[in-house]
Amino acid sequence: SDHLENIYGYLMKYTNLVTGWQYRFFVLNNDAGLLEYFVNEQSRHLKPRGTLQLAGAVISPSDEDSHTFTVNAASGEQYKLRATDAKERQHWVSRLQICTQHHTEAIGKNNPPLKSRSFSLASQGSANSPGVQRRPSQNAVSFFSVGHHRLPTGKRVPIMQPDHLVDVREMMSQAEGQQRDLIRSIECLPVSGHLTSLDQDLLMLKATSMATMNCLNDCFHILQLQHASQQKGSLPAGTGISWLDPKISLANHFKNGAAQNFPAEINKPASVREEQSAAEPCQLTREPEEINPDEELEDISDDKEDDLGAVEEQRSVILHLLSQLKLGMDLTRVVLPTFILEKRSLLEMYADFMSHPDLFIAITNGSTPEERMIRFVEYYLTSFHEGRKGAIAKKPYNPIIGETFHCSWRMPKSDVATDAGSNFSAHSPSEQATKDLEGQTEMDYYTVKFVAEQVSHHPPVSGFYAECVERKMCVNAHVWTKSKFLGMSIGVTMVGEGLLSLLEHGEEYTFSLPCAYARSILTVPWVELGGKVNINCVKTGYSASINFHTKPFYGGKLHRVTGEVKQNTTNTVVCRVQGEWNSVLEFTYSNGETKCVDLTKLSVTRKRVRPLEKQGPFESRRLWQHVTESLRDGDIDKATEHKRALEERQRNEERLRAETETPWCTKYFLKEGDGWVYHKPLWKTVSAAQTQQTDIN
């Protein structure tokens, strides 16, 4: 009781994607067991803007940083809050946990366990019980007793006590049994006829019933955590509520004719047997290889993903897969159907973000730090449109560990903006995007080289690096793709950081990547970007903040992006940007000038790639060539066969390394701290060359 002091102060509260974080004045009322907040301290005498009942709540420090924490009330309401530093967060968390424990225990003492209720499933679950004798006039709502009932004014909903968790578990066990019976009944139906096991309504029923049970299990898990906090005191720092593992193995649930039955080994094509054979030993393939750009040819493939094709035909398989997933589930280890794949690897997708090399090279041509930061923002925002292949959301291949991708771009020097004018002035219309470099010497164009490597399988981490030696600039990045199931969409968080180095100016720009979402996965899937990214240059003091806005539930525009470039020392905004990241962007500068850029009309420089016969066995296009060819031919079964062979080989190699305790050897990237860095970055080679020149002089 000595620690039950009322505390108050300012915290940041997360509202939504549009509003973001806002400062609010919070008051912890220990006597009432309430957390209240006001717009500011001056309005404290007014009615609170919001109130949380702390009895039964869970206070969880966030693992995303040292300042953030969440308050999860028993009612289901949540506050996501942020303190100014780790010390202040600990102060609030400890006081909130003490208050929560005190009032939760008080409720338990003042409210003895309730008597068994006549409406419990335990007393109604038997087949002979009158409660389950359904009359023909009953509908589903009345049968399951689902509805909204208004409580008498002034009465509160009783909070369920830990003593009743045994009753809840018994009810849920019976509900799970009934749900399993439902699934079996559907799966026992014939695959053809008037009512089949592949009926879309029945598949949707399977999906929703499974999702409902998974959701109930998660809620029960939260109740168990609260029970533990009551018995053992407040939860230890860092405790959070994690999603439970799926109760049913996905691998065993491709039934109803959707199972992927592969032919026996003797009937497999030679290409599949080759994919399943053991790869070359690590030490033979892990030596870095210097790629000669002269061996690379302009890429003529054009695999736009604008056709639903097999996605429409395989909708029943998608529904069946969804019935095995649950909200928040990590999809990293889930094998998704082949027909939703793009015809390229994720590593090649990262390369396609570099399809405007003229804008990339033009960054270092900026005459001032301000102009260079603005040019980088312009390049950054124009990269996402071409990185997506068409409007349909399909998934690139998950790279195999050790997989690499190489390419380059040749850019005529005359097409790169050099003065302080528009960064886009050198662009020709899109129909003239393929530039003719025949007859030009090496002195007439710049070369941008790109290499990417899958450096880790679990977690899936990719490293990529690009450089223009002539302009002494390079970019290094590592990305960990974390994908989650969100109901009718899939979210992918791009965890990692990139570093752009302009060696001529001694400047380094750090940047992050937005989250990506595949929406409407049951109808026409489409891609949306969301989240806030930051670009910073410590040396010059310039920074940029860019918001990718997801579409609100009602109204609003798709693919909206806003941002601003600031001089941190003076807090002066020197450029603002708004528009859509896949169509038109409008830049407004500090001098009042504005510029609109239509991304659909920007010229695209085709990348140059070595022919398949010159590529190594772990290079993306050669590694996935049989999967890609089968997808182009529309042969989904054959593509699945080749994909499965590659994945089996990867699992076998991983198992062998674990048994022999042999670490994986990367080829081009080295682990440095939490990130991955190219083994021979330009900043090292330029520095070494300058040192050597100094020694000669």
UniProtKB/TrEMBL annotation:
<dbReference type="GO" id="GO:0016020">
    <property type="term" value="C:membrane"/>
</dbReference>
<dbReference type="GO" id="GO:0032934">
    <property type="term" value="F:sterol binding"/>
</dbReference>
<dbReference type="Pfam" id="PF00169">
    <property type="entry name" value="PH"/>
</dbReference>
<dbReference type="InterPro" id="IPR037239">
    <property type="entry name" value="OSBP_sf"/>
</dbReference>
<dbReference type="InterPro" id="IPR011993">
    <property type="entry name" value="PH-like_dom_sf"/>
</dbReference>
<feature type="region of interest" description="Disordered">
    <location>
        <begin position="271"/>
        <end position="301"/>
    </location>
</feature>
<dbReference type="GO" id="GO:0006869">
    <property type="term" value="P:lipid transport"/>
</dbReference>
<feature type="compositionally biased region" description="Polar residues">
    <location>
        <begin position="117"/>
        <end position="137"/>
    </location>
</feature>
<feature type="compositionally biased region" description="Acidic residues">
    <location>
        <begin position="290"/>
        <end position="301"/>
    </location>
</feature>
<feature type="region of interest" description="Disordered">
    <location>
        <begin position="636"/>
        <end position="656"/>
    </location>
</feature>
<keyword id="KW-0445">Lipid transport</keyword>
<dbReference type="InterPro" id="IPR001849">
    <property type="entry name" value="PH_domain"/>
</dbReference>
<keyword id="KW-0472">Membrane</keyword>
<keyword id="KW-0967">Endosome</keyword>
<comment type="subunit">
    <text>Heterodimer with OSBPL9.</text>
</comment>
<dbReference type="GO" id="GO:0005794">
    <property type="term" value="C:Golgi apparatus"/>
</dbReference>
<keyword id="KW-0007">Acetylation</keyword>
<feature type="region of interest" description="Disordered">
    <location>
        <begin position="104"/>
        <end position="137"/>
    </location>
</feature>
<dbReference type="GO" id="GO:0005829">
    <property type="term" value="C:cytosol"/>
</dbReference>
<dbReference type="InterPro" id="IPR000648">
    <property type="entry name" value="Oxysterol-bd"/>
</dbReference>
<dbReference type="InterPro" id="IPR018494">
    <property type="entry name" value="Oxysterol-bd_CS"/>
</dbReference>
<keyword id="KW-0333">Golgi apparatus</keyword>
<dbReference type="Pfam" id="PF01237">
    <property type="entry name" value="Oxysterol_BP"/>
</dbReference>
<comment type="function">
    <text>Plays a role in regulating ADIPOQ and FABP4 levels in differentiating adipocytes and is also involved in regulation of adipocyte triglyceride storage. Weakly binds 25-hydroxycholesterol. Interacts with OSBPL9 to function as lipid transfer proteins.</text>
</comment>
<comment type="similarity">
    <text>Belongs to the OSBP family.</text>
</comment>
<protein>
    <recommendedName>
        <fullName>Oxysterol-binding protein</fullName>
    </recommendedName>
</protein>
<dbReference type="GO" id="GO:0005768">
    <property type="term" value="C:endosome"/>
</dbReference>
<feature type="domain" description="PH">
    <location>
        <begin position="4"/>
        <end position="101"/>
    </location>
</feature>
<keyword id="KW-0813">Transport</keyword>
<keyword id="KW-0446">Lipid-binding</keyword>
